[in-house]
Amino acid sequence: MSKTPLGPSKQNNEGSIKTMMNDLFADFDDGLPQREDLAAGVVLLRGFAREQTASLLLAVAQITQASPFRQMSTPGGYRMSVAMSNCGALGWIADSQGYRYAARDPLNNHAWPAMPEVFLALARSAALEAGFADFLPDVCLINRYAPGTKLSMHQDKDEADFSAPIVSISLGLPAIFLLGGLQRNHPSQRIGLSHGDVLVWGGPARLRYHGVLALKQDSHAELGACRINLTFRQAA
Asked: How many angstroms separate the CA atoms of 198 and 44, rounded?
């Protein structure tokens, strides 16, 4: 008994289904990070840092052994819920005297740990991928979030020059990033960030207000109930 060839309509249907399935699983098959242009000057690179998780977390452990996480206080005396540390030539600090960059860790009066090469290379490659060439960060603010912690809306405006972008790497628990406008009362966009995502903003978006909603109770396979955020800036 001979096999009846597929009719044109059935062949077309099977071809369409196959194309749809290929498109659906393309991200999983090629393993490549995905770029999302969210606004002028704002680019989200999905999974861009995921393959370097082990190296990044090892570097964070080494940095925070020398300059431990701490909860800084605002000039108004409010204690931040997010724990912080820094590496690089400068570190961002907050206390009763205000917000600023300092060359030494106020906890021990030592220079901040040097920025690891894996940090620098990843931050520069992410900036370049987002369209910002020649990014040379001199500070990385390391934030540690536990469930329930958040970051209020603010601008990154303590830097000497706003021509360089901000590069933000998310590790661990997912978070909702709030991207506002150039005024505090402008509406904000909610951006879901997952492990390994890198968000870059600069150019016309460089001074947009931003923050992080309170983290939900959860556990990550590698970090447990924790989110680590690496924020790279060119401060001097």
From this structure: 6
- Work out the angle between the directed axes of helices 53-66 and 117-129 (0-180°, nearest 10): 130
Per-residue HEC secondary structure of 132-185 comes to CCCCCCCEEEEEEECCCCCEEEECCCCCCCCCCCEEEEEEECCEEEEECCCCCC
Phi then psi for 10, rounded to 5 degrees? Answer: -70, -40
Mean pLDDT by 10 residues, the chain (236 residues): 39 41 38 84 98 98 98 92 98 95 97 98 98 97 97 95 97 98 95 98 98 97 97 97
Q: Yes or no: say if 190 and 177 are a contact pair by the CB < 8 Å rule.
A: yes
R_g over Cα of the chain: 21
